[in-house]
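It is worth pausing here to work through a concrete case rather than discussing structure prediction in the abstract. The textbook approach is simple: state the sequence, then state the predicted structure, then interpret. We follow exactly that order.
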Amino acid sequence: MSDEATSLTELLCDYGALWDISRSGRSFRAQRRRPPVPPVAFTAPSAAALRPLLEHGYDPAELAAISHAFAGEWHVERVEPGSGWLAVSCAGAGPAGAGAADAGAAGAAGAPTRVILAGDLARLREKLDRAGRLAPP
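Step two, the predicted structure:
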């Protein structure tokens, strides 16, 4: 076996799980593999309760609970069906839940907009909780 073939074999053994490595002509090419998407699993007490989970691809009750818990502080939406969730801080809203009248004044004062991304609603809730604890008073 040639030195190049041995080197390519070693590269494939060491990095083949993370990279697509190929040879074309006299050059080698490596392209990062996309990480696998974690499987979505739903558990419901009945077939009727499972239906909305399958129709939406997420738990609508969990989204409603997050929206209620962080109303006035964060705007939550799905980036693309089947991808992830995005939360954008409402202008000037603080962890205490500043009202709409205060939001304009705080937004004009240059309050930074915060953005949180998560792969699922459970992780989004965790990140929003953490953001609320870390926000300045």
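Step three, interpretation. The longest helix spans residues 121-134. Confidence is low (pLDDT under 50) at residues 95-108.
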